[in-house]
Amino acid sequence: MKNSAVIFLAAGESKRFGSPKLSFELLGKPLIFHTILPFVKAGFTKLFAVVGEENKTIEKVCAELNVTLIRNLNFRSGMNDSVVCGLEQTSGYGTFCVLPADQPFIQNQTLTMLYNRFVQEKCEILIPKFQAKKGHPVFFTKKVRDKILSLEGDFRLRRGLGEFKEQTCFFEVKDCFVAFDIDTLEDLEKAKLILVE
């Protein structure tokens, strides 16, 4: 069993997509379902989704996959607030895993590999890469979480992670979806093509 608190950032307003993208149907299920399911298959059980406006589709998926909802009342302030909100509500865990909820189709085998490497390397932060491009999910320790929450202002996640450059591990994987998120309908079509290949 993997004991990291996994936090899906699902409070975005989908401005570039033009409609609530996490509810958009993809292969018969809402997009967010395809982001969460690999974590369930990989054995992660401490799952949380930071959400903004009420969205019955997202709430139904989270209930189906046993994901705890965390309501961010300041979601319009951006991802920074959602990260802080999620970390504040998961204080009882020793390690954390954070990713945007618009990154579907990461393989469950990839997630298991990343978690195992994070535990084995005993680093403060682990970040996956695909063809040298940094991706998600990002794993980190409570020490890093506490540093992020001690900061003020914008970009707290980025700045907090930056405090631990010497204790950060990067792990190259063959899974392109660690570095692929859905921002537009064109991205959605690209994802479908990759899955068919």
Give structural notes.
The relative contact order is 0.18. Strands 1, 4, 5, 6, 7, 8, 9 and 10 form an eight-stranded mixed sheet that branches. By secondary structure, this protein is α/β, with parallel strands linked by helices. A hairpin with a 2-residue loop joins strand 2 and strand 3 (29-30). It is built from seven helices and ten strands. The protein has a single domain, classed as Spore Coat Polysaccharide Biosynthesis Protein SpsA, Chain A.
Task: Considering the chains and any ligands shown, give keywords for the structure.
10 strands, 21% strand, globular, 197 residues, alpha/beta, 7 helices
- Classify the secondary structure makeup into a structural class: alpha/beta
The portion of residues forming beta strands comes to 15-25%
What is the average of the pLDDT values? 90
Biggest sheet record: 8 strands, mixed
CATH architecture label name: Alpha-Beta Complex
CATH topology: Spore Coat Polysaccharide Biosynthesis Protein SpsA, Chain A
H/E element string? EEEHEHEHEHEEEHHEH
Rg over CA atoms, rounded to whole Å, is: 16 Å
The helix fraction, in percent, is 25-40%
Any idea what the shape is?
globular
Discrete helix count: 7
- What is the first-to-last residue Cα distance? 32 Å
List the helices and strands and how they pair.
Layout: E1 5-10, E2 25-26, E3 29-30, H1 31-41, E4 47-51, H2 56-64, E5 68-71, H3 79-88, E6 95-100, H4 108-121, E7 125-130, E8 133-134, E9 138-141, H5 142-150, H6 156-162, E10 168-172, H7 185-196
Parallel strand pairs: 1-4, 1-6, 4-5, 7-10
Antiparallel strand pairs: 2-3, 6-9, 7-8, 7-9
Helix pairs in contact: 5-6
